[in-house]
Amino acid sequence: MKDLLAARGLTRRDFLKVCGGLAAVMGLGQAAVPGIARALEQAAKRPPVIWLDFQECLGCTESVTKSRYPDFLNVVLDMISLEYSEALMAGAGHRAEAKLKQSMADNKGAYVLVVEGSVATKIPSAMTIAGRTSVDIAREALTDAALVIAVGNCASFGNVQAAHPNPSGAMGMLAFMEQEGIDTGKLVQLPTCPVNPVHVTSTVSYFLTYGKLPEVDQYRRPKIFFGRKVHDECPRRAHFDEGRFVEVLGSEEENQRWCLYKMGCRGPHTYADCATVLWNNRANWCIGTGQCIGCSEKDFWDELSDFYAPMPGVAVPGFGGIRVGADTVGIGLAAATGGAIVAHLAVSAAKGRLGKNDDGTVAEEKEA
Amino acid sequence: MAKVVIDPVTRIEGHLRVEVEVENGKVVDAWATSTMFRGLEMIVENRPWMDAWHYTHRVCGVCPTPHGHNSAMSLENAAGVTPPPNGRLMRNLLECAQLLHDHVLWFYILNGLDYVNVVSALSAKASSPQLKAVQDRLKAFVDSGQLGFLENGYWDHPAYALDPELNLQLAAHYLESIKVQAVASEASALFGGKFPYHMSTPPGGFASVPHQDQIDQFEAKVREVKGWIDSVLVPDLMAIAPFYLGEAGIGQGHGNYFSWGVIDEDLEGGDPYKRLFPRGGIFGAFDGNLGVQQVDHEADVREWVTSSWNTQYSGALHPWEGITGPDFTGTEGIPEIDRDGRYAWEKSAHLKGVPVEVGPLAQMLMAYLSGPADHPAKKLIDDTLAAIGHAGNPAVLLSNLGRIAARVLKVKIVGDKTLDYIAQLRANMAAGDMNFYTPVPDKPTGQGFSGWDAPRGSLAHWATLDNGTVKHYQIITPSGWNFAPRAGDGRIRGPVEEALVGTPVADPERPLEVLRTLHSFDP
After folding, report:
1. Rounded to two decimals, what is the model's pTM?
2. Given an 8 Å threshold on Cβ–Cβ distance, is A308 in contact with B59?
């Protein structure tokens, strides 16, 4: 073990620090450190990770390289073997492609595939690398992977390029794997735009620790990250409950950090743990200076837009702390939304405390 | 003649295929092909106008901040809204944090491996315990046999010129830079919520009110990054420059340069000619024309689709009338291109009828040649030229060397100025100015433009609104200028294609020099 650590340029103390950091971000507590340490130690080789970029903006690579807890450098030099990444690798052109081919062959069925970006299905040549379409590359790479991590909303759901009219036919991994008949049991999707690096490192270390994927929801999102609503963990939540709302951006009410629901915040419709893990090494989060637009959700650009108007169907407390039941802002629920969004609109904030919405729908917790 | 195809070009943002023809050890012709299309300009149409800045923000995850700012400012322009001075100040601070992150990342992570030989660093005589520790760590990594992303580099290429000791020093700083750029992005998040994709500057200004702890933390993080830039990045540039002076003769291009300008000094009116990096264009520098001309965003800008997989139209269009629509006519997968036909997804933007280079070199040239007499760019550039033995000869900067130096010197200026803007924010708030946002109309109708440079060059958004809905939207990115394919009746090469011509290639199997010219543009 000592040799192995030395080979990775780590002292035992450094190593346990990394494990401790991982335990912390996973919310597992220090008791889990020995287990994580054992799991990492048992891997004689650093697990091979192939990172593919399709229709993207590189924002997820940007996001992950900014991880400090654990430190991105530790991840790349000590925890994994990053076999291929267009953004980081030294070689280019056919040398880069040779490395990809070699690594996929050497590690067939055993590599972790990270996908950033969507595949272009309607116009296959709207996304090509080395003379091949993203559809071709993805089909092969997904098939032979042990584990697939779709980072960001593009790889998960197609993100903004899949919004109407989706000119290129952008498609996320869950839909693509289903279409191609590739086992989705090995897929984890980590939407948000960009991906939160905490979700990536925690997913990898969970897999290394327990030898299986964390429990996922219908969209293959780990419930440990996406099982709770932004609204339910929001530090501004008390203001919502007491009926204190920001009515003008940048106002004194905003200075007091009152609730942004009336400014269009999508926290009540969005499942993600942003309020607790925060962003950029816990520097801040969207609701800290702006608002939530629902970037962890499928099709949020189409389904949750008019981002600066409050979503209809949310039961809102009245002013002065008197709860007056639902505030049916704007048009009615059924007219405003498609079926997919109804689950979101059934806001648990109302359940048991605010009663039925004005339009008669009962607010209920989405199956998490 | 040898045909060399680089696909993918790695260590860039986006997806790029480059084909060059090599004769007698030099590139004689080049074709740049963007290999991705998403159609965001089509997608943002018919959306609520206030939302547009979130959609178009997503064009680039490496330079998201200026996309967000340009979109919000073009929408403000269309809606007849003027943000308050504090709103402009917050945008300055977010833009500075973006730049501090971007140029550090570019110098080491994207561009660095073209000049710094990691394998050579292993045989260096480490001059300090810190460098020894880095060397041991790299050795352990190499000895593990799992070289990963460092495998298949061009480590045996004769164009690597640094000695092992300098390679080790730069390799150590490569590793450090990862943390430094993360700290800069944490500063972005303090005022933006997160990075990439801040949430705080919609049309109207700054949506929140910064709290004391946020300002203090922002300043602390900026000081940390600025200190590193001054004590590590700038000295690294000066340390390696003498070994790579040959790059001063490579990658010249057309000699036309252009910047929309970036970072407001005029907080009331936002005059683009008074920006920290002012607006302007230079045409025909290699003919001795270094005069800076004003740029009219309506009369001077046109986009061609001569070589583009875009809906075809005759002539060139201004973005107000611009058409974006996919029309792929190549071979599926793009295994080859039609050199004489249409061969790229990118359109071709021309300024005053010619292709122009954009980026930090252009930004620094405008500051150097048209900025006020006390502009920090003047002394920095003059001192740098003197240090590399070219005092009074800024023409050597019109090259790969100049692009690299310009980025480093620019981010040094940005680091210094960020502290000034923070001081100004504190002073405004102390004087009782708590106005960060101008309320916007519900359903504006009108046309709006904003040109505000991204880290990698000129970026502009043009928005047309009708009763609160986006009717038409066009964006010209830095790549729309630099990576333009051939365009116009004369099929004139784009700036990067032109800059590649003349680039030496010692070994067509290992086209390291081509990558250097490409990376100097930070695609």
Report:
1. 0.91
2. no
pLDDT of residue A3: 52
Which one of A172, A193, A225 terminates a domain?
Answer: A225
CATH number, domain at A284? 4.10.480.10
Residue A368, domain member (yes or no): no
Strand-strand pairing, B16-23 and A187-190:
unpaired
**Domain residues for A212?**
2-225
Q: Which of residues 294-353 of B touch A (CB under 8 A)?
A: 309, 325-326, 328, 330, 332-336, 345
From chain A, the residues in CB contact with B5 under 8 A are 93-94
Residues A199 and A84 in one domain: yes
Among 3.30.830.10, 3.40.50.300, 1.10.645.10, 1.10.600.10, name the CATH number for the domain at B2-520.
1.10.645.10
Phi, psi values for residue A50, rounded to 5°: -110, 125
Residues of chain B neighbouring A263 (CB-CB closer than 8 A)? 207
How many domains in chain A?
2
Interface predicted TM-score of the whole assembly (ipTM), two decimals: 0.97
In this structure, the answer to whether residues A116 and A240 fall within a common structural domain is no
| Distance between CA atoms of residues B479 and B35, nearest Å | 12
Write down the pLDDT at residue B212. Answer: 97
Domain match, A220 and A232 both: no
User: CA-to-CA distance for A223 and A215, rounded, in angstroms?
Assistant: 6
Nearest chain B residue to A167, by CA: B39
Structure token pair of residue B312 = 């075809």
User: Mean pLDDT for chain A?
Assistant: 83
* Share above pLDDT 70 across residues of chain B, in percent, rounded to a whole number: 100
Residues A76 and A201 in one domain: yes
> How do residues A197-253 score in pLDDT, each as one tens digit?
999 999 988 988 898 999 999 999 999 999 999 999 999 999 999 999 999 999 999
Q: How confident is the model at residue A359 (pLDDT cuts 50, 70, 90)?
A: very low
Q: Where are the domains of chain B?
A: 2-520
- Please indicate, yes or no, whether residues A296 and A212 belong to a single structural domain of this protein: no
Higher-pLDDT residue of A229 and A357 is A229
Please provide the average confidence, as pLDDT, over all residues in chain B.
97
Residue B350, C-beta contacts closer than 8 angstroms, at least 6 positions apart: B301, B302, B303, B304, B316, B356, B484, B487, B488
| pLDDT of the residue at B523 | 84
Do both A102 and A121 map to the same domain? Answer: yes
d(CA B179, CA B191) in angstroms, rounded, equals 19
> Which residue in the list A199, A239, A269, A292 is annotated as catalytic?
A292
- A361 in a structural domain: no
Is A19 a known active-site residue? Answer: no
Other C-beta atoms within 10 Å of B379: how many? 11
Domain containing residue A150: CATH number: 3.40.50.700
Q: Are residues A79 and A205 in the same domain?
A: yes
pLDDT score recorded for residue A367: 35
Burial class of residue A201 in the structure, from the number of CB atoms within 10 Å of its CB (0-12 exposed, 13-18 middle, 19+ buried): buried
Do A234 and A302 sit in the same domain of this protein? Answer: yes
For A323-337, write each residue's pLDDT tens digit.
433 333 323 333 333
C-alpha dihedral, A210 to A211 to A215 to A218, nearest 10°: 170
Q: Is A57 a catalytic residue?
A: yes
- Asked if residue A19 has pLDDT above 60, the reply is no
Residues 113..172 of A with a Cβ closer than 8 Å to B: which?
120, 123-133, 136, 159-161, 163-168, 170
Residue of A33 and B190 predicted with greater confidence: B190
B435-459 b/e (C-beta count within 10 Å ≥ 16 → b): bbbbebeeebbeebbbbbbbbbbbb
The whole-number pLDDT of residue A325 equals 37
Which SS3 state, helix, strand or coil, does residue A45 take? Answer: coil
B400: tokens are 């790969």
Mean pLDDT of B430-451: 98
